[in-house]
Amino acid sequence: MSTTSPTIPAETARHVLWHFGQEGGHRPGSFTQRLMETFAAADMPNTAKLANAYPDYAAAFLAAQYDPDGITALQRIASGQAPLSCRCGDTAGPFAVSGLCEDCAGGAA
């Protein structure tokens, strides 16, 4: 996983979509449900602390909450599509919040 730009696996995208009641979501286990409830309740300093342990969930959760195109990007990731065109043509992911695959995001995120 890139340390400069968190990647969002399809499973994570599906869990966060479920949390927000969006199409393409899939109910996670009880721990992950509570983790997302924690993200929802956290202020920014505590969100940053959570992101140290769960960077993929933090990236997906923040995208869903604050990016106007975040839900659409997560739906594309959840369905196995790249949210944006990668330079390398990767469609399998995982993908960074920027929409690039992990390899492309690592060099130019």
Task: Please tell me about this protein's structure.
The model has no long low-confidence stretch (mean pLDDT 83). Strands 1-2 form a two-stranded antiparallel sheet. The chain has a domain at 7-82. 55% of the residues lie in helices and 4% in strands. With 109 residues, it is mainly α. Helix 1 (10-19) crosses helix 5 (70-78).
Number of strands: 2
Strand portion: under 5%
Strand order of the largest sheet: 1-2
The chain-level structural class is mainly alpha
List the helices and strands in order: EHHHHHEH
Q: Are there runs of 5+ residues with pLDDT below 50, and where?
A: none
Quick overview of this protein structure:
The model has no long low-confidence stretch (mean pLDDT 83). The chain has helices spanning 10-19, 30-41, 44-53, 55-66, 70-78, 102-108; strands at residues 7-8, 95-96.
Question: Top keywords for this entry?
Answer:
109 residues, mainly alpha, two-stranded antiparallel sheet, globular
